[in-house]
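Input.
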Amino acid sequence: MSGGAAETGRSVTSRALAVLDAFDAANPRLSLTEIAERSGTPLSTAHRLLAELTGWGGLVRRPDGRYEVGRKLWDLGLLAPVQAELRSVAAPFLLDVHTATRDTVHLAVREGHTALYVERISGRESVSVVSSVGSRLPLHATAVGKVLLAAAPDDVVEQVLRSLTRATRHTVVDPRRLRRELAETRRRGYARTAEEMSLGTHSVAVPVQVEGTPVVAAALGVVVPSSRRDVTRLAPVLEVAARGIGRQLARVRDFH
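Output.
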């Protein structure tokens, strides 16, 4: 009997994980039917598991009836050693950038085809910044995302280029143009955007490279009002902070 109980437990766990695995960067919000189909789970079972996962906080049910990943899973993710170490190491450097610029400062990592924002310090000016800690935004429409995409494997770049979506009328959705921008980002060491993710904002970002390695562990960026024309002048400030983070990360075993 105990073996049967254990088998049942494994089956339930497997199905719950399959439900969570239905979500990905291309499908961050799903209906009950879509989750059941993508996870290979019977509709009634998916409905029960979704209720339990929602009650726990792992998923959130939106007003339109679709589901998305909840804060509980994000909080657990922050306990991962590499993520926690990155945020801890980077925190004082982000504060330095914020003190020097008084603008909104971001730290992001690549997760699949999105930029996952792991830290943020808000700026003094009330610009429309759509990111928040834990949010995922398109790689091609943000400065931190373009930095991360420029450092991504070729297959990731090609997949992103095949599925460009428009966030604003200024978003670059021409694969050839974006390819040129990525090459320029690699050459000059920073990326910038002008109202590509949200109107009224410009952004600039630089890679955070682990010192002594080719590993780009994150991207560090700032967002400013579009009325500011000196956004690229902030790149050197970011580069100094990024080098400091990279030196500290080189001492952390998990990043080697």
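DSSP finds nine helices and nine strands in the chain.
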